[in-house]
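@channel sequence for tomorrow's demo:
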Amino acid sequence: SKRSLEDGDASEGPSFKRHGARSHLLDVIKEAGLTKKAVVDDISDLTRLDNNDRVSLLRFIGQDVDKANRFRLLLETACTLHGSSFENSDLISSPSNNSFPVTDTEQLFVRETYQHLYNEIVLKFKDSPRNRTEKRVIVNGTAGIGKSAFLIYFIIRLLATSSDDNPPLVIFQEKEGSMCYAYGGLTTIRYGFVEDFRPFLHLPETWYLVDSSPNPLLADARSIYSASPKTLKSDKRGYQEIEKRVIWKYHMAPWREEELEQCRESVERFNVVSE
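structure tokens (generated this afternoon):
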């Protein structure tokens, strides 16, 4: 059966009632000192927490991320760029000697389509629209076109332009499985199974980014699914339901020759990134 947060016993909404998940989440909430705010009649309800409280809770879920891990670099880059303008910026540089994940380069070339799509997504997903289909998009396009790199750009920019008063929560699901990196504003990064972070995916304020991962969830969160036509049509990847339920599909345009030339000039160790 398709893994969905909307069907059957997997969809208890922000109030978690399943016994195993409930007992674990209640323990975590207690450890974070948030029981008075987040628990009513022995049932957890994360809608009662603001995003700062949710980030505090996130620190007790999953495991810490090593300083050498390249996904931590996204957080460090966002901190370095905090308050900067991203409009008309076509290059993001690593603040250290480490390479970004996915692209394996110390510079992230920002395609013009990344900036347009970022602005369009943030605008369309604003104010938690009631219609769930409005908060989901499939970013489609051929392999090597930069769909995965767009997700990296999206995380950096979203975190860098966030406010301390309302830090975003971002769950990024890796390409090859159910493991995720979870970001809480500019202060927190955790690593674990998608099931570990499932309570946050019930919240419409959370961001859920899927990098062609097998068996993606249909979540209440603001969801961006990066997938090639081959992935969408694959019986093994579990995207049939996603394609059926997600109305907004954005087709990423191929690289223009002048874009490629600019990228080669700007980015050391330039190579066309994988799907």
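heads up for whoever presents: Confidence is low (pLDDT under 50) at residues 1-19.
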